[in-house]
């Protein structure tokens, strides 16, 4: 049986989770639902070293208000256009009317923004859909996942949030207008390839209250305690829109993996040096080890300082260990030859010669198995992710086509209804 303290802890966690979910659902019922569509108009340079990218994005944020509560002063022409179901422009709307006060969470520096507002009549629900058109240019921070470098796929995201809490604003992806990307206007086409589909993720973050320990007044302490109780369950809604880019890995395969392979393969040539010249074997092997280490540091200059190894790092380290084992073996066989012969004079068919050949076969077999394992891993892990991304692209095209067909049917049905 479980201890009573464990059961009590589990029940308390369950009750806390239930209370938070109920609180969030009640807030959603009262809050304004803001539907967001984001289009990547242009993707600029992707800076792997500094973990940022440049982009030009367009954000459309829509929310509905009752027709009776729409108090914006429209001209007669705009009123006629609105009644006909067409979109009308709203100048200086944010200065006098409510809007969700959106901002970009992962923006870097000063983003260049242009904001416009428009309104359109929704005849089905008898509401007015207010649309905020936000045009943004600038740099965005992105945490790059480099475990599979150079065959990695990076998500380039824009996180949108509001100054209001979830009791006022809930951000969600627009179900009627899909987010998209312009793949033609891409600067780094030589280094990256963009996928067509777009992923959206809705999440919530807790609000944190910063307090100082210098308050000596009891009134201030009581006020701070009251503010803490009011904000401990408050959350902000965040919508993250992500496109995906796959690195063009051919350059790194030829100039990274291939060169490391050739340098390591060169070390097997030391077994062709006669056993009478074992000192020369050690000299060549140590030179190849230092060359591999220098080459690895050169490759790592193009990557940020990370706490884990990339696939290129793992391959390079395995090859360096292979070279070190070669050097250790040459030292061992040198001691054996010194103890068993006179002045390293090893005969052609002696047991030391066969022992050295056996070591060569073991090392070379390990080298072959290493590369077979690497090829299988690349096929089953990084390249599998790329195949999954292409499948998502296919499903995304199908959804877009279905949406277009549905829109055409609605237009035809509306025209027929108008004629009759």
Automatic annotation (TrEMBL):
It comes from the Eukaryota. Its main location: membrane. It is a multi-pass membrane protein. The chain crosses the membrane at residues 251-273, 315-337, 357-379. One of its GO terms (cellular component) is membrane. It comes from Adineta steineri. This is Uncharacterized protein. PANTHER family: NEUROTRANSMITTER GATED ION CHANNEL. The keyword Oxidoreductase does not apply. Keywords: Membrane, Transmembrane, Transmembrane helix. InterPro entries: Neur_chan_lig-bd_sf, Neur_channel, Neuro-gated_channel_TM_sf, Neuro_actylchol_rec. It is found in: Membrane. One of its GO terms (molecular function) is extracellular ligand-gated monoatomic ion channel activity.
